[in-house]
Write a structure and sequence with these properties.
Keywords: Cell membrane, Glycoprotein, Hydrolase, Membrane, Metal-binding, Metalloprotease, Protease, Signal, Transmembrane, Transmembrane helix, Wnt signaling pathway. By secondary structure, the protein is α+β, with helices and mostly antiparallel strands. Helices cover 48% and strands 11% of the residues. The chain has one domain (12-249). The chain starts with 17 loop residues before the first strand and ends in a 7-residue tail after the last helix.
Length: 256
Amino acid sequence: VRDRAGMVHPGWVCLLQSLLLLATARQSRGPVGACPLRGKSELNSFLWTIKRDPPSYFFGTIHVPYTRVWDFIPENSKKAFQQSHVVYFELDLTDPYTISALTSCQLLPQGENLQDVLPRDIYRRLKRHLEYVKLMMPSWMTPDQRGKGLYADYLFNAIAGNWERKRPVWVMLMVNSLTEVDIKSRGVPVLDLYLAQEAERLRKQTGAVEKVEEQCHPLNGLNFSQVRQRLAGWHRALGWLLGRHVESRSMGIGLE
């Protein structure tokens, strides 16, 4: 279910913080006593313990490439993951149905396109911005990505393919992930997916605590007036970006 870039389609890395449940650790060796004093490195670890026998754990994750945060995750959290033999994630990102359902839920109703629902000026700015991103993407990619066989056109289509059919809120999330910094990290799984891959590799039992519909419906339920304020800010940001793009033409970079 993962493509050559190791990504989850489409733009899933841009969703809100998730909740990872590490459940049913191996049997404890004795009764739970008084909580010992902990070192500073063990505090504020986003790990909660459910006191039972065997114990269970809650761990808060974030949808960013795991290499950005892995070194900052305290050892107690990593140990809880290693010792658990049942792991529940926000969504099952290794299930093909999950990826397919996420793709479908982002689309406008049949017969509608983004051009039909966005103000004309915003749509035009968006289209020009995406043209610029596609033009710049080869220069944003790293030698390591090229060495793994990733191509700029493939990467752009993996992230922004079929964008004219997406709902505005999902397009905004997509645009947020089309930055040079984010492009350079493509091919590295987000923390949730990395842990799911590790759980699979270690042959742990896995599951999900939410369904795709529970993720999609709240965002899809936003009416246009609720999205309008975000679109206004987005409009100004695109205007600034496109102004920078025009400046770059003098250095031999064009949009046409």
